[in-house]
């Protein structure tokens, strides 16, 4: 299994289990299956609404003693309504309680967008806090304090553009250790990858399979289906693999982490085995030629110009 190495020597397995959209009643079994099948990287977030059930899975697996807590990389994310500096530590405490853990391996600022503390999902502009009311660098400094306390061994961000990273880096000496963003052959983000590599920031790819199980309200018309893409299918046939395995290995092959979500036992195991595909030059060229800068998760749902959020990804 490929791994990503951090400055202090810690290593994170490149392929992890994503838990966004994993339903209560299904996610516990999925996490247990994943861990028992060899996964050592689980990606969570407070807003997914399933951390309590994931915590039950962790407790069940770790109490058996075969798989130890320290062998598993566990990530979670700070939700947008806890960006004020006094709200960051309580938010992490809640996540640790829900996940039944003493610490996280990685804690991320989920979006470069802030809501009022009482708002879990905004409905109108007044529900937001502007970047001036909740400066990202203050949220970041509160995250740094949690790292110093050992509550989160590593900290980073998610959905940050080069511009937003540059702005944060101008106000801190501590570079984010991770940026979790949408990445797949239709959205390769080569500039962001090069920038992050230069700055020592790892990338994790979310929605690597196109996130086809998103709610209809989040979808655009005529979205491309990467699992049905002719190029992906021909590469999959050539390597006796599934299209999903090709897409997952594409991310791991670039030196990024990747977190495909599944609650299906067979698919969970198949996704982990993606690592064994060995692309040749022809495959890599075919995959490189697929880039369309196409986003499945547009971020437009958080664009509120009157509160200072007019272009989430700065594109």
- Order of strands across the biggest sheet? 3-4-5-6-9-10-11-12
Q: What's the β-strand tally?
A: 12
- Average pLDDT works out at 96
User: Which term fits the overall shape?
Assistant: globular
Percent of residues in beta strands: 5-15%
Low-confidence stretches: none
Percent helix range: 25-40%
Largest sheet: 8 strands, parallel
- What is the rounded distance between the termini? 34 Å
Alpha carbon gyration radius: 19 Å
Structural class: alpha/beta
Task: Give the number of helices.
Answer: 10
> Could you give the order of the helices and strands?
EEEHEHEHEEEHEHEHEHHEHH
List keywords for this structure.
10 helices; alpha/beta; 315 residues; 8-stranded parallel β-sheet; 12 strands; two-stranded antiparallel ribbon
Can you put this structure into words, describing what you see?
- With 315 residues, this protein is α/β, with parallel strands linked by helices.
- The protein has 10 helices and 12 strands.
- The protein has helices spanning 27-37, 51-64, 85-99, 136-149, 162-169, 190-199, 230-238, 243-253, 265-272, 281-288; strands at residues 3-5, 11-13, 17-18, 41-43, 73-78, 104-109, 114-115, 128-129, 152-158, 178-182, 202-206, 257-258.
- An 8-stranded parallel sheet has the order 3-4-5-6-9-10-11-12. The protein has a two-stranded antiparallel ribbon with strand order 1-2.
- Helix 7 (230-238) crosses helix 8.
- The longest helix has 15 residues, at 85-99.
- The relative contact order is 0.14.
């Amino acid at each position: 299994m490929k791994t990503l190495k951090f400055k202090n020597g810690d290593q994170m397995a490149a392929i992890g289990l994503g838990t966004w959209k994993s339903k209560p009643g299904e996610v516990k079994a999925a996490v247990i299956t994943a861990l028992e099948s060899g996964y050592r990287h689980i990606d969570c977030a407070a807003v997914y609404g399933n951390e309590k059930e994931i915590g039950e899975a962790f407790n069940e697996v770790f109490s058996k003693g075969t798989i130890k807590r320290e062998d598993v990389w566990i990530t979670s994310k700070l939700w947008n309504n806890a960006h004020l500096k006094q709200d960051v530590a309580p938010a992490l405490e809640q996540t640790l309680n829900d996940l039944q853990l003493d610490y996280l391996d990685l804690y991320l600022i989920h979006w470069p967008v802030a809501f009022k503390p009482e708002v879990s999902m905004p409905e109108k502009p007044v529900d937001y806090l502007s970047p001036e009311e909740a400066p990202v660098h203050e949220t970041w400094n509160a995250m740094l304090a949690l790292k110093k306390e050992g509550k989160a061994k590593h900290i980073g961000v998610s959905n940050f553009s080069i511009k937003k990273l540059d702005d944060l880096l101008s106000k801190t000496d501590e570079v984010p250790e991770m940026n979790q963003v949408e990445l797949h052959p239709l959205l390769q983000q080569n500039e962001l990858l090069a920038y992050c590599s230069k700055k020592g920031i790892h990338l994790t790819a979310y929605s690597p399979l196109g996130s086809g199980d998103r709610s209809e309200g989040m979808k655009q018309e005529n979205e491309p289906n990467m699992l049905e893409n002719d190029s992906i299918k021909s590469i999959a046939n050539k390597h006796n693999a599934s299209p999903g395995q090709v897409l997952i290995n594409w991310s791991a092959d670039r030196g990024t982490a990747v977190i495909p979500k599944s609650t299906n036992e067979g698919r969970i195991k198949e996704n982990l085995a993606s690592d064994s595909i060995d692309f040749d030059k022809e495959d890599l060229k075919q995959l490189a030629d697929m880039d369309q800068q196409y986003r499945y998760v547009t971020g437009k749902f958080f664009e509120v110009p009157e509160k200072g959020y007019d272009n989430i990804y700065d594109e």
